[in-house]
């Protein structure tokens, strides 16, 4: 509740609001203070659009003009307007812009009355009178109604009254002229607290007052809080109750206002409905602000811990420095004082930055908490019209205050580490040049696990520097092992913080790590990340590496070629370890073409039959027979280079299987689940892509992710057991 007190004080007199009125800019001011700061302007300076009339209120938008007061822990920050420090008795005769100030022409009502004077008792307002808001400095020209044209802020008045009652040790008499005495009774009908002398003088127990009920002050306070909601009346028509709300004017209105046509084209809604709607909006806005306040409190704890860490690190660093300097000869002693001075300056600079941030954040948190408590008290009010008079301004203030806790506000401006390193390596003759080395090797990068992933036989890694690290980085080095527990090897060196490594082994576990470097050297490694490549290879034909005559469909799983000449197409995954099996079905087969199926290097020729050059190992077939071919030689690649041909061709609907076993380094072909001859090729090493060659409208569809045939048992030397 203490933080809310600043919300309940008038910006002019600095005291609690008394009879507050709402200016069109949504700011509040005491009625007496408003009379004291009235000024008169020439007729030529009286813009009609700025008159404080009910129809002109909606034309103002002062959100950008509101200013948040900044104050330290020892200063409230609320200055007076026009030179007033307390409730003024003689107003200043000159305002800041040089225009004349009119003092009140009649005595002020007693402070204890808390009653608005009757219209007839208000001082006469000179023509073209102007009032300047002490917070946003917007000048407003008063109309014929004068200050009566501004609505009273009954909600704020109620909050102030409750706050003062909660702070008061004892209820005071409301009729004592000088120092109020402690009240002894309260009249429920008059709603006034009396001490014994004032009760005998002002409320004698005779005549009409004899029927009034006098109760103890504490009971009177309870009954006053429990009193029913006051019915607000229209400022234009005093006998009419406020029952509707004009959305455009943002003001409560009565039925007579509507009948007179002042709001004929405006959207008008029920007062109760708008009251509930705005209360809900304010409550929702407070939820976000409450979260910011909670974060701010946690942030303050973090900053205070940083102060302790800075002090501890400073002491530790200073001790280390002294130990190094004391180990040197007399020449180092002349330099030691200068080095200690630099450390202390860095120490004090860090403390000053963090303490300044603590002070600034404390001020903002205090203002935020005060606004929250004030808004919560406003929500408790059960006066719809009074609440709606200030709800828009409060909602804007809450959103604006929440925005001030935006990105970066809750981030430390200083680290607790001392980025200073004493280089004790130079020889004795260079002692006079001894100084701090400002550059350190980079800190270990942090792997961003949410962005690291594997897909098929590719791995993507992402990393970043620690959030509070201020040491410069020239580049990064990414290392992976061989997927089989072997040594690490560099796979990337550069400035990027994300890298994708292709061509890894399937069904293998890789370890990865990254380190940063700069001109001072190489930093520590990051934590090691273990990644598992896919157990089964799902791949397709690759349009990027295929001959232009190849036609793709079915998400690159089906290919065909209308050219008379053979055209080669490879798949988008390469194999170099494990056992792999895939199949292709012949969807169309006319005119006795000779399609070829097998494996190839990445630089295989694309305009000849697969197997014609030394970059491919294939089986080509017609409708009757099949041949194994490599480097334009029909052979099964045995040492004696015997040419091999086997019976059995293909037709529409036939299935060709390819089995590649790196543990035995062999390649086997199948047609319709029957092995074609013996082992087709042996002694295979390196990296190979599945590939085929087509011509004469042959159409083939690829099938991956298949188990190896039942007849085949992988070799005992298989380190992975992977099957695709």
UniProtKB/TrEMBL annotation:
Subunit details: Interacts with SNAP25.
Species the sequence originates in: Cynoglossus semilaevis
Pathway annotation: Protein modification; protein ubiquitination
Keywords annotated in UniProt: Cell projection, Coiled coil, Cytoplasm, Cytoplasmic vesicle, Cytoskeleton, Metal-binding, Phosphoprotein, Repeat, Synapse, Transferase, Ubl conjugation, Ubl conjugation pathway, Zinc, Zinc-finger
Pfam families given in the database record: ANCHR-like_BBOX (PF22586), fn3 (PF00041), SPRY (PF00622), zf-B_box (PF00643)
Domain B30.2/SPRY as annotated: residue spans: 518-711
Residue ranges of domain COS in the record: 379-437
Catalytic activities: S-ubiquitinyl-[E2 ubiquitin-conjugating enzyme]-L-cysteine + [acceptor protein]-L-lysine = [E2 ubiquitin-conjugating enzyme]-L-cysteine + N(6)-ubiquitinyl-[acceptor protein]-L-lysine
Official protein name in the record: E3 ubiquitin-protein ligase TRIM9
Localization (cell): Cell projection, Dendrite; Cytoplasm, Cytoskeleton; Cytoplasmic vesicle, Secretory vesicle, Synaptic vesicle
Enzyme Commission (EC) number: 2.3.2.27
InterPro entries found in the cross-reference section: B30.2/SPRY, B30.2/SPRY_sf, Bbox_C, ConA-like_dom_sf, COS_domain, E3_ligase_FN3/SPRY, FN3_dom, FN3_sf
Residues annotated as signal peptide: none
Gene Ontology MF terms in the entry: ubiquitin protein ligase activity; zinc ion binding
B box-type domain location: 168-217, 229-271
Fibronectin type-III domain segment(s): 441-536
GO CC terms: cytoskeleton; dendrite; synaptic vesicle
PROSITE patterns listed in its UniProt record: B302_SPRY, COS, FN3, ZF_BBOX, ZF_RING_1
